[in-house]
Write a structure and sequence with these properties.
39% of the residues lie in helices and 17% in strands. With 170 residues, the chain is α/β, with parallel strands linked by helices. 32% of the residues are buried. Belongs to the bacterial CoaD family.
Amino acid sequence: MSLHTENSQPSIGVYPGTFDPITNGHIDIIERALALFDTVIVAIAVNGQKQPLFSGEERKEMIEKCFEKEKGRIIVKIVPSGLLVNFAVEQGARAIIRGLRAVSDFDYEFQLALMNRKLVREVESIFLMTAFRWIYISSSLIKDVSKNGGDISDLVPKHVERLLEEKYRP
């Protein structure tokens, strides 16, 4: 059931993140967001506080490979610097989608949602709880485990696992 109605424009949701790399937790949120929106824009954010392992283009290709069968419904874009809520408006999005893993995520996300609401009332924030089996993983943790030779095979897609191996064990 999407938020699209017969007489309205297709519904668009923006799911932002650094996705460095994309994990099965991210994929779960994107797949569930597709049940709510006609189109999900996966917005690769540039975060000046984070030093990414993968370039923006590498992350874009990584994500697109995960969703080859959903081409057209999932659009991957690298977001230039600026306010995410403004990007959402430019894309015609009705909502910003955020995944929550724990209560500690909610505090920060709640502040962001309120600020975005103050800036642009027409864009909603939608929170999706990460599936229980992915609740403990993060991109940072995945990179750390991979760098130190741990098994991440059930936490990321195979092509992402290979790319991490290439980065850490060329």
